[in-house]
Input
Amino acid sequence: MASLLPKPSPLRFSQHRSHALSDSVAVRLRCLPSGNRRVRCGLINPDGGKLVHLVASAGAERDALLREAAPATGLPRIKLSRIDLEWVHVLSEGWASPLRGFMREAEFLQTLHFNCLRMPDGSIVNMSVAIVLAIDDSQKRSIEGRGRVVLLDAGDKPVAILKDIEIYKHNKEERIARTWGTTAPGLPYVEESISKAGNWLIGGNLMVIEPIKYDDGLDKYRLSPADLREEFMRRNADAVFAFQLRNPVHNGHALLMNDTRRHLLEMGYKNPVLLLHPLGGYTKADDVPLIWRMKQHEKVLEQGVLDPETTVVSIFPSPMHYAGPTEVQWHAKSRINAGANFYIVGRDPAGMGHPIEKRDLYDADHGKKVLSMAPGLEKLNILPFKVCKLSI
Amino acid sequence: MASLLPKPSPLRFSQHRSHALSDSVAVRLRCLPSGNRRVRCGLINPDGGKLVHLVASAGAERDALLREAAPATGLPRIKLSRIDLEWVHVLSEGWASPLRGFMREAEFLQTLHFNCLRMPDGSIVNMSVAIVLAIDDSQKRSIEGRGRVVLLDAGDKPVAILKDIEIYKHNKEERIARTWGTTAPGLPYVEESISKAGNWLIGGNLMVIEPIKYDDGLDKYRLSPADLREEFMRRNADAVFAFQLRNPVHNGHALLMNDTRRHLLEMGYKNPVLLLHPLGGYTKADDVPLIWRMKQHEKVLEQGVLDPETTVVSIFPSPMHYAGPTEVQWHAKSRINAGANFYIVGRDPAGMGHPIEKRDLYDADHGKKVLSMAPGLEKLNILPFKVCKLSI
Output
């Protein structure tokens, strides 16, 4: 499954520096080396202790799934939207560990009310956005009483089987209000994926037939959390700092990322590695398309603005909610699963303008505040910064 | 401060019984006696380990506060609404322990996003509704730069001093959406207390001058959590089961409460005591007024429908949000602080009709589901029941 990591030629480390982080890096730092001695902590544990992997192995396992997914078996079939497929991708690779499929009602309710899930052993993991699959009344009628369904892509090709299914109500208004803190019309994800969706949600355990690919020339950048962990281990990283973005890298970003590395070195880490992690799923129409962003990110490495030796560029397959303080938790939590133990958070993360009022939807400082308080993210070191106004 | 507990003459225990609880009492029972031997657990610990008490002692402490609150000192003054005063009452007696005053921003954000607060030792307490004090722009201007303010009742009498104050934005839309799961117009608490309130919130530590009284003939029923704990200890209760209601007791309620006691006895408890706990703060216009409800509750005890020997009737001073699954957590958490280790939850607790659609605002089962999942309520035994449709 692992794609090859792009390897631009190593170039010189940028000398630009900023001191913007100086006052903030002391926030919630754990697992630190004492003095200047190197202490290997290994990579941070994924949520739930084990990285979830829901893709069948090639061979007998995949073949069995394919046979079961064939029309002849008569299993009910659900066609996935583009966003649904992105969530299958996210779930299949364990970005949402310990989730093993689309949320059941107990997970959905905990997500809406508490932004976290209680594990059977009593521990808490963060989970702030609902990863759910909606169906309409007629689909519900055709599925009820059946234990599993086949999920199809846009071309009617079977992608996965959802088993041990559970169907429950999709109260859209409540979901939107509790996730976005508003029900104003015009929220991009809501318009794209919720407003017209069915009134029911179907949860269950996913069995994915083969790795999700998009054949857009960018699949090589879509490293799974397992791929990333392997790469960080290969590079002997003793700290991994993740930077989520959905726009081109600009000078402020680059200064910040280089400065963060410098600070981590000063703190005693010997080999901090940057995970430059553009979001690759659904984004609103006026965001820069992924293909252009990736070209720009490649240039940034080629030109040595960021050091390719200590930078891993990869695509985060999640769709974008634009849900501010709620969503930034998801952005951070998923990077824990990919091995990051430091997370850089900027001004108004995952924010946008209010859809019908002349103001930002979220308080610009709430993202980093909420992130620093979020249950289940205690093990992550949050690095707030204030270089300039960024849109990440 | 303790009021005398009303003591109707003991009458015979009702023989009516229901088996409605049979399937549910096994849910989350902890601290149980083994076999039939009596095991004293003591009362459940209040949240944060210590019951908060914010009322000055009569004498030097109260006098000092009164002097400080006098107009001559020039401290800024804020006039409280009826609901604000009810929250001062709630806070002053420790129903919201460990809160020590109106919420600061960190508490407000945790409440909105996580329905719980992290304590300095890393433990979690539940806190699902925002207990906040709103001020407008001109009040903010007059207060800024000052460390404390005087809070006045409707007659301009000083009630409390709020110290170490913090002023932050009151994003009403976000508060409403995250608390109620809707922003539809017509939510009673929102119309009464939020829509017209100021755009800022002021948090801080409360110092209350004397116990809050209403002089409505019902103050004798307003027992504080400390009073209730004392009463439960006096009665030698080894289990306290709380029943929140905001309507007259009907036969279904009575059957349920008696049946709960029977089940607790069967489980090995020797002296389970019922806390019959009508909500006494703000309710919507079409709810039965408190004075009539209390008359009815008195009759229920006098007539022996409930056994006065094993029942404590008291008024819970909180205002009502009608926020369903979010609010029921507050109703349960506050009763932990009063010593209850069992909480009875019915269908659609704290629910109401959707203000503009022809349906219930909340799924009737979400209240008990959310309650059973809520962070910080793990120590409480949740007793769901389905006798009939109740409005509590």
User: Anything to note?
Assistant: Residues 82 and 261 of chain A are 36 Å apart (CA to CA).
